[in-house]
């Protein structure tokens, strides 16, 4: 079995909480979890499978911790890597930019050659625009801790059930 690297950035703790639950559901024996502010692209390179998490801030921006790492991702060779993404956003207050942070990371990992898995249906969300909406679904798990927190645990369970066999 492959070892999975779980990389996330969290401003308020919501993305960290989601990452902790994702790691728990995957199984701690299969996953190493990192706050992206404490590591870099060289650590990501050491894994065949990656789970990447971010929230979206302001007018569709990446979470702060990802900014220091983002330029270094240009040197990351993701050919042969499987990547699953999860994103947090506020679909009601920031509906024009819902999950754009996840979309930005998706674009970068695809550009670097990654195979992305874990697309998520968009039909139970109320938003007007998203960079993470591609070919009829979100590019990864969509979470809204502000308006739909009560759904997060069940969504994580379902999503991990989908991606775990592909990542391992």
Mind explaining what this structure looks like?
The protein has 168 residues and is α/β, with parallel strands linked by helices. The protein has one domain (4-167): Flavodoxin domain (Rossmann fold, 3-Layer(aba) Sandwich). The chain has helices at 14-26, 41-44, 64-69, 100-111, 149-167, and strands at residues 4-8, 31-35, 49-57, 61-62, 82-88, 115-117, 133-134, 137-138, 141-143. The strands form two sheets. Strands 1, 2, 3, 4, 5, 6 and 9 form a seven-stranded mixed sheet that branches. A two-stranded antiparallel ribbon has the order 7-8. The longest helix is centred in the C-terminal third of the chain and has 19 residues, at 149-167. The mean pLDDT is 96.
Please outline what is shown here.
With 168 residues, the protein is of the alpha/beta class. Helices cover 32% and strands 23% of the residues. It has one domain: 3-Layer(aba) Sandwich (Rossmann fold).
List keywords for this structure.
alpha/beta; Rossmann fold; 32% helix; 168 residues; two-stranded antiparallel ribbon; 5 helices; 7-stranded mixed β-sheet
């Amino acid at each position: 079995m492959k070892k999975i690297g779980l990389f996330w950035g969290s401003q308020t703790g919501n993305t960290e909480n989601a990452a902790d639950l994702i790691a728990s559901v995957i199984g701690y024996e299969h996953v190493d979890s990192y706050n992206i502010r404490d590591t870099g692209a060289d650590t990501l390179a050491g894994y065949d499978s990656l789970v990447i998490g971010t929230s979206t801030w302001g007018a569709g921006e990446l979470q702060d911790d990802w900014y220091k790492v983002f330029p270094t991702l240009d040197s990351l060779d993701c050919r042969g890597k499987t990547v699953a993404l999860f994103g947090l956003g506020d679909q009601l207050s920031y509906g024009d930019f819902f999950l754009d942070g996840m979309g930005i990371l998706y674009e970068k990992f695809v550009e670097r050659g990654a195979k992305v898995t874990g697309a998520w249906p968009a039909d139970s969300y109320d938003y007007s625009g998203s960079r993470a909406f591609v070919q009829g679904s979100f590019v990864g798990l969509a979470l809204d801790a502000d308006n739909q927190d009560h759904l997060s645990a069940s969504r994580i369970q379902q999503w991990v059930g989908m991606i775990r066999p592909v990542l391992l």
